[in-house]
Amino acid sequence: MRIRDYTQADWPQVWPIVEDVIVAQETFPYDPAWPAEVAREVWVERPPGRTVVAEDGGTVLGTAKMGANRPGPGAHVASASFMVAAAARGRGVGRALCEDALDWARRQGFAAMQFNAVVETNTAAVELYRRLGFTVIGTVPESFAHPALGRVGLHVMHRPL
Predict the structure, then answer these.
(1) What is the CA 40 to chain-centroid distance, rounded?
(2) Reported confidence tier of residue 35, pLDDT bands at 50, 70, 90
(3) Cβ contacts of residue 82 below 8 Å, gap of 6+?
């Protein structure tokens, strides 16, 4: 598996991953009614941000986007988001994407990375981020409408670089 910068030619393989995650409504607060064009505008970062894909043998297994968490006085803190194809979960794709984002953020001179909305019931992601040095610095209660579990919290997770 290798991680490389996203190109427009990747969208036909990235969109099914993004669509699957959005429609499931379990981990991302994106509107499941979004058409592909809207999702692409939201997912693909413009420079100086970055979007990448993890691929193996020409097949996209996952994707990530990263950039400054906030503009201006908050621009020294990075943020990132990750999506992995259902068939590729549990194979280290998410970890590789997160490590790549952390390396990129360090190279860009960011002081820290912060995730603003990690669904507390997304235990695989929460545990991965903890293993990579993130801590939960707060939880916004009942701020995510999970389709099976009802209203659950969103963690804010942070780690210095």
Answers:
(1) 14
(2) very high
(3) 62, 63, 64, 94, 97, 98, 101, 125
